[in-house]
From TrEMBL:
Domain of life: Bacteria
Protein's UniProt name: SDR family oxidoreductase
Record keywords, A-Z: Oxidoreductase
Keyword Oxidoreductase in record: yes
Enzyme category, top tier: oxidoreductase
CDD domains per the UniProt record, alphabetical: TMR_SDR_a (cd05269)
Annotated EC: 1.6.5.2
Record domain NAD(P)-binding: where: 7-180
SUPFAM superfamilies: NAD(P)-binding Rossmann-fold domains (SSF51735)
GO molecular function, one term: NAD(P)H dehydrogenase (quinone) activity
Length: 283
C-alpha cells in the first residue's frame, strides 16, 4: 500500500510523514511537494506536486493507492486546488482519499468553512472512496502568539468566553497516520478536537502561572482587534481573517466534546499547559 502525502514539507505534513514512518515502511510513503529539495530530509520518496499545475498532478500520483490531501494554505484558492487534486487522483486510479477538513465544517461560521465543505462535496461526488478528518484548531495557532504577548505584557484576542477544544498539531498528525494505516475507514467523517476546552482567558492564566508573572487576557471587539493586529504588521486581509476566526470562536465554533480524537489516539490529547511549556522552552 503506497501512501501519498500532499504538503509533506508543511508543519502538519512533516509530522504526518514521521508518524507514518513509525507504522509502515518508508518505501510505502511518497511526499508530494512543490519543492523536492525541501523534502530531502524526510527520508521518503518525493515527487513534485503543485496544486496550481493540474496537468501534472495525475502523473505524480501514479502508483499511489491512498492519498492524504492536506488542505492548501492559499485561502480563497483551496476549492479549485483541491478539485484539481481530486480529479487527478481519480484519473491516476487512487483508491482512497483522506482529507483534512475543518471541525463541524457543515455548521461552522468560520470563514474557512465554505472551502472545506466544498471539498468534502467534491470528494463525495468523485466516486473515489474517501475519509474526512475534520480537524479542530491547533493549539499552536494560539501559542504561536506567546512571544509577542510576553513582550506586550498581555495576551489579546476577540474570542470572549468562547470555549476552544484545541489539540497539538502532533495529535492531529498522529490521528491521520492511524487512520491511514487502519482498515474500514472509507466513508467515515471524524470530528477531531482536544479533550479539554479552554477560553483565551484560561490560556493567559496558564501562561501567567508558568511565567510566574501576570499576563492578562485583553478581549477586543472584532474590528478593533483587526486594527490592533495591523499595527503589528499583519496584512489587512489576514488581520481581519484572524479577528473573524476569534469571533467565531466566541460562538463556540471551535468547541467539541465528542473526544473522537483521543479515542483514535488511544490516549488523552496533549493538554494546553504542555504546549505552552514547550513553546516557552523554545523561546
Amino acid at each position: 500500500m503506497k501512501t501519498g502525502i500532499t504538503g509533506a514539507t508543511g508543519q502538519l505534513g512533516q509530522l504526518v510523514v514521521e508518524q507514518l514512518k513509525e507504522r509502515t515502511a518508508a518505501a510505502n510513503i511518497v511526499a508530494l511537494v512543490r519543492d523536492t529539495v525541501k523534502a530531502s530530509g524526510l527520508g521518503v520518496e518525493a515527487r513534485t506536486f503543485d496544486y496550481n499545475k493540474p496537468s501534472a498532478l495525475a502523473s505524480a500520483l501514479e502508483g499511489i493507492d491512498q492519498l492524504l490531501l492536506i488542505s492548501g494554505n492559499e485561502i480563497g484558492q483551496r476549492k479549485t486546488q483541491h478539485e484539481h487534486v481530486i480529479a487527478a487522483a481519480k484519473e491516476a486510479g487512487v483508491k482512497h482519499i483522506l482529507y483534512t477538513s475543518l471541525l463541524h465544517a457543515d455548521r461552522s461560521t468560520l470563514s474557512l468553512a465554505p472551502e472545506h465543505l466544498a471539498t468534502e462535496e467534491a470528494l463525495k461526488n468523485s466516486g473515489v472512496a474517501y475519509t474526512i478528518l475534520r480537524n479542530g484548531w491547533y493549539t499552536e495557532n494560539y501559542t504561536g502568539s506567546i512571544s509577542g504577548s510576553l513582550a506586550a505584557g498581555a495576551f489579546i484576542g476577540s474570542a470572549a468566553e468562547g470555549k476552544i477544544s484545541s489539540a497539538s498539531r502532533l495529535d492531529f498528525a498522529e490521528a491521520a497516520a492511524i487512520v491511514l494505516t487502519s482498515e474500514n475507514q472509507q466513508g467515515k467523517t471524524y470530528e477531531l478536537a482536544g479533550d479539554d476546552a479552554y477560553t483565551l482567558g484560561d490560556l493567559a492564566a496558564e501562561l501567567s502561572k508558568q511565567q510566574e508573572k501576570e499576563i492578562p487576557y485583553t478581549d477586543f471587539p472584532e474590528q478593533e482587534y483587526a486594527e490592533v493586529l495591523k499595527t503589528f504588521g499583519v496584512p489587512d486581509a489576514f488581520a481581519h481573517a484572524i479577528a473573524g476566526w476569534d469571533a467565531s470562536a466566541a460562538k463556540d465554533d471551535l468547541f467539541d466534546s465528542g473526544k473522537e480524537l483521543s479515542t483514535l489516539l488511544g490516549r488523552p490529547t496533549t493538554p494546553l499547559k504542555d504546549t505552552i511549556k514547550a513553546t516557552l522552552a523554545a523561546l
